Amino acid sequence: QKWDMPMAYPATNYHSQNAATFAKCVADGTASKLNIVTHPGGSLFGGNDIKRAVQTGQAPIGERLISAHANENPLFGVDSIPFLATSFADSDKLWKAARPKMEAVLAKQNLVYLYAVPWPPQGFYFKKEVNSAADMKGIKFRAYNAATARIAALGGMVPVQIEAAELSQALATGVAESFISSGSTGVDSKVWESLTHFYDVQAWLPRNVVFANKDAWDKLDDATKKAVSGCADKAGAEGAKKAEELTAGYLKTLASNGMKVSGPSAQFKADLAKFGETMTEEWLKAAGADGKTIVDAFKAK
Q1: Angle subtended by helix axes 146-154 and 266-300, to nearest 10
Q2: CA 118, 201, 100, 7 torsion-angle sign
Q3: Is the pLDDT of residue 301 over 80?
Q4: CA atoms of 7 and 98, how far apart (whole Å)
Q5: How far apart are CA 264 and CA 144, in angstroms?
Q6: SS3 at position 271
Q7: What does the pLDDT look like over 156-194, one tens digit per residue?
Q8: What are the counts of helices (DSSP H) followed by strands (DSSP E) for the chain?
Q9: For 34-66, b where at least 16 C-beta lie within 10 A, e where not — what string?
Q10: How much is the pTM?
Q11: Sequence-ordered list of residues with C-beta below 8 angstroms from that of 296, at least 6 positions apart, any chain
């Protein structure tokens, strides 16, 4: 049996490489009874269409940046609340607190949660020096989910929605002049060709979630399910480890290609912390009791 797996990021990205390892683990663990074939770079479905494709059974398995769907359900944005969980350890804690609710929400959408892998901490890319929120006014800012669109609004920037695969083009043509993302995306997209500054503000660590279509999953026998789940647990742990290892290297690559890499100024940091407070309150209001349960559990540990 063959499962095609659409993915949004380039084949060279560690998420895509991790999924290829996961697929091999599944083939080995099921004696090739189930073969997962990865389709990176948005080649099978664009990032925006992957979740819907898996829900409706057009693809049996896929990977998606889950916070891109926060407008469907605020819980999908739990990993993008700015300045709540800013380190790998904290991000892990937050995800552990959120995972049972996340699995339940996905199950209602005909999806089976398999594993999730964080991106490195998010920082700002600009083509000029930015020392305060006031300096952000009017900048065309790539937004990829509800949280990034809200940051654009709070900073007086102009949000433009652009998928990762189209980012280089958008920067080169001036459709976007700025974005918030990890060092990974900056390196993937060679952003030094268009931009000059990276501010390592460690806003949050969003996650890519890998899920299967529930009907396809239910057709697997128990031994195959068990093999897939085992490989998924391994892929989640390995992916997180890889993300952490790569983080410093990405920032070095940005700098070695001429970008100015630094932390935020005191003023910029204070301005961003205010954005974070506003957005945490807004998220809690939107996510209701489930959201409060998750944040309380995260803060209690």
Answers
A1: 140
A2: negative
A3: no
A4: 23
A5: 22
A6: helix
A7: 999 999 988 899 999 999 999 999 999 999 999 999 999
A8: 9, 11
A9: bebebbbbbebbebbbbbebbbeebbbbbbbbb
A10: 0.89
A11: none
